[in-house]
Amino acid sequence: MVLSALSSALVRHQDTIIYTSGIAVAGYVMAGWLAGKIRELSTVGAADRARENLARRFARNNQDTAWAAAALFPAVLGQLLEAMRVEELTARLQGKQPAAVGAARAALSAAAATVSGGVDGKPGSPAPAPVAVEQPLDKDAKLRLWNDLKILAFARTLASVYILNLLSILVQTQICLLGRGSYLESILSADEETPDKTVVVPVAFAETRRSPVDAQTEREFLSFSWYLINVGYRPLLERARWAVEETLGNVALKQPVTFDDFVTYIENARAKIELDEAPSSSALGRGPGGAAGTTPTTPQFHAFVQYVLPQPETSAEADVLAATSGTQSPTSPTGDVSPSLRRLLRELHLTFTSVDFAVALRSSLDASIEVLLSQFKTSTFTGPTQPPPPDTLPVVTGGDASAAALSSPAAASAPTLSVPLATLLPRISKTVHTVWSSPGAGLGFEMGMMGTGMGGNPYYEAIRNDAAVRSLAAVVFARWGEDGLMEGGDDIRGEF
């Protein structure tokens, strides 16, 4: 009876039941969709905020890098001027007396005057012993000095460009590694304080969270630029000197040099500095297929890491820490290197042995060498602009005829000069001061003009604004593990 009544009621109200059930199901589905959409929008918003924060910190790291690198320029310049005394050779060739000899001669003259007549006719004090004066240089000695000046001037300038590139990338990588750690710690702390866990955190880093780097570790890590400035630059100077000797050793000082010749000299010296001959199978006494013979060698990109960083986990690292802290070097081969500092040094070494670093260094060298070439082209190899012949002027039917004439190729061109090689030496000798000049107004941080290149150091601006260098910084800053770089930087091939 009850079942019959219930069945009858269901039949009578089935349309209402179906309609109500449909609305309930639709409402449930809609509520789930809205909840998912809200979570998605919240996650996207958090990701956008994280990206903006990351970009802001990355820009600030670039500013810190510029100031930190510029603070080291005077120390590097002093080392280079002391190691290769080009100005001293120039003074000797010009017949100028060193300061000590000039002062001695002045003292000798004053003493002679005192001896010749004292006060009231009394004899003066005894004359000092005669001072040995440097004899004039003979022809062969002058020629040797000229050749030494030629080699040292070019070698010092080229080495300066290489050291500037290495130092810039080194400081940039150090700042990026420290800045990345600070950024990750900040977002992890924010994630712990956020109940809904909407902060985007790299999973790999969150799972292997390390303690933050303290101020002492930061100072020790940044102090490793000392190695390049005080130790690593010396073998790089010698390599540059060897490359210049191989390139310009047989070039006479009076030989006319065009701009194309100058470019060729620089490129040949670069090839010798940047490329190493790879060992061939002929060195093992075997050719292809195991037969004796010769195999062409493929140049490999030089391992510049040896000039930038000491050997990992050796006493050289302890020497750096001792030199920068003023303490005695530890007896332990690895020194008192904390785990956090060891991790930073390991990742720094990984960066400088990667293909990404080799690509960035090659690109920044191209940019900075281009600055050198362009400066010499305009200051030394380009004569005054000559007005074009009348028949080469463009035909102007309207508008400003003078503007059209100035924009024509004939008016813009200028004759290319041919100058003796010796003429280049004063300019190439002074270039080292331009390479290590203060970036100054070229940084333009206060006006928000970072990277505008207004004033300052054109060489550093070219390096800092190079796309490959910026990409390397982005890779280092955004890399959460140690697998974000391509290893094997020595395998990059040179193309000259």
TrEMBL record:
Biased composition regions of type Low complexity, renumbered to the chain: 324-335
Domain of life: Eukaryota
Xref: InterPro entries: Peroxin-3
GO molecular function: protein-macromolecule adaptor activity
Record GO biological process: protein import into peroxisome membrane
Region (Disordered): 316-339
Pfam families in alphabetical order: Peroxin-3
A single GO cellular-component term on record: peroxisomal membrane
Identification of the protein by name: Peroxin-3
